[in-house]
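# step 3/5: fold
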Amino acid sequence: MLFGLLLIATNSFAQNRIISPYSRFGIGELQTNNFTRPMAMGGVKYALRNNDMINFYNPASYSAFDTTTFVFETGILSTFEQLETKDMKKNHNYTNLNYLIFGMPITKWWGFSFGLLPLSSTGYNISYTETSINYGKIKYIYEGSGGINQFYLGNSFRYKDLSIGFNATYMFGSINKIRHLYFPDSSKFLGTNISNTLQLSDFYLNYGIQYTHKINKEKRIGFGLVFGNSSKIKANQNELTRSFTGLPEQLNFLDVITDTTIEGNVSFPLNVGFGMSYEVVNKLLVAGDFGFQKWSEYSAFGIKDSLKDVISASFGAQYTPQKFSSSSYIKRMTYRLGVRYSKSYLELKNTQLDELGVSFGFGFPLRKSRSTINLAIELGKKGTTNNQLIQENYGKVTLGFSIFERWFIKNKLD
């Protein structure tokens, strides 16, 4: 059953339907803020620690699991996008399975987690036409699809109020990019089709630390730090160039001009993140994060891309009026909100694109259980319409299911 769930999730991630011209660059659009509870709180994550929550972003958090529990989380993401320039607007939406993760204790001081989730997604279709004196109209079409997934195994170890952990992540997947050049008004010239497929398949390690300072029985302050060193991820790239007649919708391929496959690696950047939280147990949580990723180090097969370093900041809070109320369901619900800002790794026309998002959400507890249904909504924008660029306005809705089961309990004999 578990293998079947992972297989379904892998197929869902592979069939992403994003439409973003900015996913043409690097490894595509990074999927870094789609977990339901953190998303509702502006994406804060590094200091979050709870016995009924799996915090993939800081592996030190896994040691918080109760010794008799098993946690399973999954989420469904719906995204509504509007691509906007100064002259036009285009709408698009898609829905897909977003993550599938599991967590459990090994001992009182050792926690374990594993799961499957997307790292990046690519999806675009861009075309334009120019006119030449010698050739007439020349049409160019650029298409991209695919993405990179990650399957991880994580461990966390706790000593008193200090926890350390790591994720061993296996990255895999492919990004497919196709370029068409053809002459719509002439049958004398052949079109050219260039298909480029990048495949990644390798392991990556990242680390986390969390420290909790108890002010009293109800109040505590948490600190979180994550670190991932720059790594070279094994990859191979195939490029196939063919001539064709007809239109891109109904190609008639003629000659293979080139067909080459090379092996090498893709350089992933150094990344660090720091977070703080203040918590009143079962009542209030306030948290803030700061992150840095050195994407200027990125290269593929020894060729550098013009990517920039990423900085991000987020702030969020959640409030539960009365978690154990027996008279009011509304008081048992959890209410969340947050805001985040980041500089993306793209700089186009001397403009480094930024992203701003505001979010809110709710936690719905299930009766006679610690399991919850969580809803997160984020509204934001990425990019700008200045300098003939494209602004992406979006709304994201994530419905998450957190299943909290009691395991490892010995039956008492009468």
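# step 4/5: annotate
The first strand starts at residue 29 and ends at 30.
# step 5/5: archive (pending)
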